[in-house]
Amino acid sequence: MDIKKLNEGLLGRLNPRIATWLFNRFKNMPVVERKVEQEFDNLLGDLEAVVKPYRQQFDIYAAIPDTGREASAIIAEMQALSDLEQPKWKDGYASGAVYHGDAAHIDFLNQVYTINSQSNPLHTDLWPSSAKYESEIVSMTARMLGAGPQADAAGSDRGICGVVTSGGTESILLAMKTYRDWARDQKNITQPEIIVPVSAHAAFDKAAEYFKIDIKRIPVAADYRADVTAAREAITRRTIALIGSAPCFPHGVVDPIEELSEMAREKGVGFHTDACLGGFVLPWAEQLGYAVPLFDFRLPGVTSISADTHKYGYAAKGTSVILYRNSDLRRYQYFTTTEWPGGLYFSPTFAGSRPGALSAACWAAMIKIGKDGYLAATRKILEAAATIKKGIQDIPELYILGDPLWVIAFGSRTLDIYQVMDYLTTRRWSLNGLHHPACVHLCVTLRHTQPGVTERFIHDLRAAVDFVRKNPDHSGTMAPIYGLAANLPVRSLVGDLLKRYIDLLYKV
Ligand SMILES: *Cc1c(COP(=O)(O)O)cnc(C)c1O
User: Fold this and answer.
1) Tens of pLDDT along 93-118?
2) What CA–CA distance (Å, rounded) separates 319 from 210?
3) Which of 330, 402, 339 is nearest to 175 (CA)?
4) pTM of the model as a whole
5) Domains along the chain?
6) How high does pLDDT run on average in the chain?
7) What is the number of other CB atoms lying within 10 angstroms of the CB of residue 61?
8) If you measure from the C-alpha of residue 222 to the centroid of ligand 1, how many angstroms do you get, rounded to a whole number?
9) In this structure, how many other beta carbons lie within 10 angstroms of the beta carbon of residue 292?
10) How far is residue 126's CA from residue 135's CA, in Å, rounded to a whole number?
11) Omega before 247 cis (within 30°)?
12) If you count Cβ atoms within 10 Å of the first and of the last residue's Cβ in the chain, which end, N or C, has fewer?
């Protein structure tokens, strides 16, 4: 870690008095500097074995081998790796991650992939099937999310439309780029800003950073849903779009999309519903009679929606859908160039070549499952989630944040919740650690609807709470990292730690 660079960065950004104070503090305290660096080294040293568990048992390929290996040997080795990793997610120990995961469904997706493995939507002449699959994925998703039948008319200038992307992050990045270019063209906004609840996905920060859009984070209310008043106060002439989540990733609660999107409509700015997580759950939950607030295109102010087919759409990883209110807006997403010696070139998303097989698998998943399949899956998930919520509520040391349907965040007012999470890790559970406030969540999927899984979770959670109550000073793997992250006053140091972690991932 380069404290000097860090200080230069700080001096550039902060009010000079504070910056000077910080600078002197660090300059005069090499002990602190060394301590932080040492702390990082210790943490990452501990993590290295966790991140790279195969170094001892498997050959390492730092360079292309001199002679190619036998296919069967490679398959056997990869099978061995997969066998080591499969039980954890397959048996329902993970939060989110694998949303369907039944063996028969996986086999079906694999079969579809095999048939389409060479397909590339960039080459529409070779694979017009890709365009068929993708246009139908978009149309099916749009119809599920409140579009009228006009969305069927492929290529029509009216009606809700969209494109298939590689995942939720790409859907969000594309939407934000679209609003930026739309606002520049239509409203002459050259310093765009978006208004985003703190609970909205990090992909909005990523979009802001990549596309030089200012991001205004607004707080959530006591129920963890976006604060509507704060949103109203945040809107300026530079605002290009407001964002709401249905539901948000951390706490699984749905923002007041109706009020927010109406506000956006009155002000003539875009409104994006991030339904990456809920797009393929909430419509079915509503049909099942659960209390689901409106979040989709039935609200006139909603101008775009992201919905992840690779989550509760039960497709293979690598697809999502970004929908727009009309194709005028969608056009700001497209890229075309007419003067490149390589020919007339266009692409709808960030990538050039794309894996057509993933779109094929997505299409196949959607029509194999059907409305009846999505309804049945959603019913099972929401029932399992209700059991888990009840189990958590029955543990006096814990409390649930907000009123979620199936992504259940819980914290504790008396125990270190990260120690609870660490204990659960020793029982093979893999939950998500969250902060501001400190809590963890379990995102319930079909994996948790298998017999015995919810019971096992509640049993292990009780044991974890018991253990932490009796051993409050026991230190696990993640608790010290979250502790450090929460206590470091200079936030860029935390970012520095994360960058070092990514470096570690790329270490052979
Ligand atoms: C998962 C998720 C995203 C991002 O999706 P990726 O597929 O991981 O890129 C965005 N928003 C919400 C609410 C999500 O749950």
Assistant:
1) 999 999 999 999 999 999 999 999 99
2) 21
3) 330
4) 0.92
5) 3-51+487-505 (no CATH), 115-146+153-367 (3.40.640.10)
6) 92
7) 9
8) 23
9) 20
10) 16
11) yes
12) C
